[in-house]
Amino acid sequence: MDEHVETKLGVIDSLSLGFQLVARRPWLLILPVLLDLFLWLGPRISLQPLFSRLILPMLQMPDGLPEDIQQMITFSQEILQQMGEHWNLLSLLAQGVVGLPSFIGSQVAVAAPWQPPAALAVNSVGGALGWAVLTGLGGILLGGLYLWLIAAQLRRWRMDEIPADETATAPPGFLRALALTWLRLLLLSLLFLGLILLVTLPISLVGGALSFISPTFAISSMSLLSMVTVSLGLWAGFIMFFVTDAIVMDDVGVLQGVWRSANVVWRNLWPTLGIALLSYVIGAGFTLIWDRIANTTWGTAVGILGTAYIGAAISAAGLAFYRDRRKRWLEAAASRVV
Questions:
Q1: How far apart are CA 161 and CA 2, in angstroms?
Q2: Is 101 helix (H, G, I), strand (E, B) or coil?
Q3: What is the pLDDT, as a whole number, of residue 232?
């Protein structure tokens, strides 16, 4: 493994290392597989009453709208109707700031040997927010544990020192490290939420004011503002691409994690873009394959295992790439100081 330490890890090298690590540590798949089995076969929390009573009536089309806007609103109504009927609120457990790779969590409806009835039908905004907060907190904890386990194995990874059949053990201070990671990721989630509200609330107020003047002009203006906002959000997300890796791998706080992520991305702009795009293409490509076979029970089981494996390898690759580029950046900065 010395050659990996001495030479700069490229995009392909990082992905190869990620797949090697997961292949030799298959127990890293246990957490995402168990979560998917729970989402697949366990109880559900449905928001259908809330969607039918509050959300869908809000999308009623006023008269005189252009045909393309009517089609867009109709499409949104169909999507929300489908979400209300099939979406499980517990899938938020797989969609925290560090999302676990989840095949079931990304599906609207999948084949199962049996389909349990919804354990709870939420019909109030307060109830939906309460369950969303609880599942969100649980998702942050699971995501932090998942990424921490991969980072711990990556720190110890020595192809010539650690046997392939090494068992998983909890190091001293595991619970303290997990709690600290969870708190930091929670703060990061609150930071993201605050930024989203800071941007979306003024846009919503402007859209509401314009709707009193001209509904058609309001919808067109909101579409343009949404495009600009999404573009800025994508750029900000790219700059903070490694923020969770920095928090977990380097054991630093949120602001230091943002700082390190921004530096690594800015100093390695094209390689970072490369690993981000290639990771997305690999994940999305295999998701299309799993979707093709998910109409059977066995196909869904294969999709669960495949998604867990690909997702863990991509996470390990991102951590490895970040660790290598962060190490070189800090060494270069230290040499300049000396």
A1: 11
A2: coil
A3: 87
pLDDT confidence of residue 77: 66
Regions in the chain scoring below 70 on pLDDT = 1-6, 54-78, 80-84, 108-119, 158-172, 215, 218, 338
The type of residue at 275 is I
Q: Which phi and psi angles does 52 have, rounded to 5°?
A: -70, -35
For residues 259 and 262, give the distance between their C-alpha atoms in angstroms, rounded to a whole number.
5
DSSP letter assigned to residue 98: S
Of 174, 104, 99, 79, nearest to 140 by C-alpha is 99
pTM summary value:
0.85
Q: Quick one: tokens of 66?
A: 């252009």
List the structure tokens of 127. 């109830």
pLDDT computed for residue 113 by the predictor: 59
φ, ψ of residue 281 in degrees (nearest 5): -65, -45
Query: Do residues 249 and 319 make contact, with C-beta atoms less than 8 angstroms apart?
Result: yes
Sign of CA dihedral 126, 132, 136, 138: positive
Report which residue type is found at 14: S
Per-residue model confidence (pLDDT) at position 297: 86
Q: Where are the domains of the chain?
A: 25-47+87-337
Q: Which residue has the tokens 């995009």?
A: 11
What's the CA gap between 87 and 44, in Å, rounded? 9
pLDDT of the residue at 274: 97
Question: How many C-alpha atoms does 109 have within 13 Å on its Cβ side?
Answer: 10
Other C-beta atoms lying within 10 Å of the C-beta of residue 158: 11
From the number of C-beta atoms within 10 Å of its C-beta (0-12, 13-18, 19+), residue 220 rates as middle
Spatial separation of the C-alpha atoms in residues 218 and 73, rounded to whole Å:
14
